[in-house]
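Hi U.,

Before I forget, here's the chain from the pilot set. I'm dumping it here mostly so it's searchable later in email.
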Amino acid sequence: MALFLGATPPSAQAGAPSIMTRVEFHTSDVFLSDLYTAAETTSRTNEKIFAGRPVLIEGGGYNGIWIETQPMGGEMNAKRNMVTAFNNTLLFIEQQLPNGRYPGLIRHHNRDQKLMPVYTHTQGFCFPFHALNLYYWNKKRDASYLQRLYDSLEKFDAYLWRYRDSDGDGCLETWSVWDTGEDNSNRFTGTKLNHGGWAGETPPDDPVFPIESMDFMAYSYDARATLARLSVLLGKGTEAEWQARAGAVRDKLRSYLWDDKRGACFDRDRNNKTMPALLHNNLRAMYHGVFTPEMAGRFVHEHLLNPDEFWTPFPLPSVAINDPVYRAGPNDWSGESMGLTYQRAIRALENYGFNAEVVLIGEKLLAVVGRDKFFPQQWDPRTTEASPYKNRKDYGPTILAVLEYMARFYGVNVEFDELHWGALGREGHTTAYTQHWDGVAYAIESKDGRAIARIDGREIFEADCGVRVDTDWRGTVLRVINLRPGPARVRFHTGGREMTLNLERNGIHEFSPMR
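Structure:
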């Protein structure tokens, strides 16, 4: 089957995928099998055609592609559909304004078959990592795509610093409710902005905005850190400059928005006074990688795992449940736990080595979504009851989060030049996951507490369940990571070598390069 991204053939479009992917997953656990099938089936209903090009919309009543969700969602779904994955990124690059501003979302007019980019707000930025990782999913076959991405991110970072530091204090600002995707948030009470957006390139005259923002600082950090990686890949020689500029953003965030006594970041209001609400936005900052390891560790241990704040019966409320700003309501980022937060939490926690916490959070999500057998936008963090906003049960970020946690636990994930094999296992059950990628089968099976990984039938490793194993694309083992909530003793076999590894919680055993 010929693959194309739009009205023009792949040869005419930089970044067009030239390879096929698909996933097979089988398990003796009927609960897990049914959930997987429902997630894959429902996700396909969110595949649409925009101006002749296949995309994966957000779903759940959101009939467009938002930059806060769909480049991330598309890349996660590259395991199954490379075409939508690239379109979900390329369309934002193509619709970027000359001043560097991206559309917050792109809709589609079905009758006229026209794209409708929307520039009334920034709407998050889950973009750089996923856009870069697509280059690796495409087996590094198109350097021109890297150049397009480099130019695009450079323009956007320049846009942020040209317009979004209106008082010149070195901290970027959010100018509307929708800029950070915090619809209806109680912390913005009093704003006079209609519908939550602001399209201007000068700050609004508003009682609430502009706000000095950890989110916007994280957007710039992520763009700059990715530009440093791209510089290396393109041989530009600017990586040290971009790393230094990313470091300057991190330093300012820490000195200006981080409260060392409370172990978290806090935005500042239009008068530069600290806004005291304890927000899950700290986890967003971790997703973008702007925290230092020490900052991330403090937020996770002091707040994320605190049952009085974020470690509720259904974890990850948008605001700590004991905070005065907390408020539960439909499509309200003042409180209830969001499927999008679960989706972003994977990278947020993996960035800092909290792999056991990824398992704990992911298992909560699988249990609750599998119980209800639909995919809502949010849940009550105290009762675990789903809140199907306007009876919407096909919310894409929740669907993709479910599929991505399964891949992390039982399957194969591509991250740059590495393969991450989930050897968690399912107690009392078998699992078998195969990632078909460019004509090669990457398979991992678990049974009776042991997991075996193979590439086209060639055994790569065998291990006790409860770990993640990282390899290069050829299958050379690089490291073994403990996924269990406590210390583990792991029997491991690779390349004719047998060994026993003693791993602490989140412990890592690094392998020396094979010669």
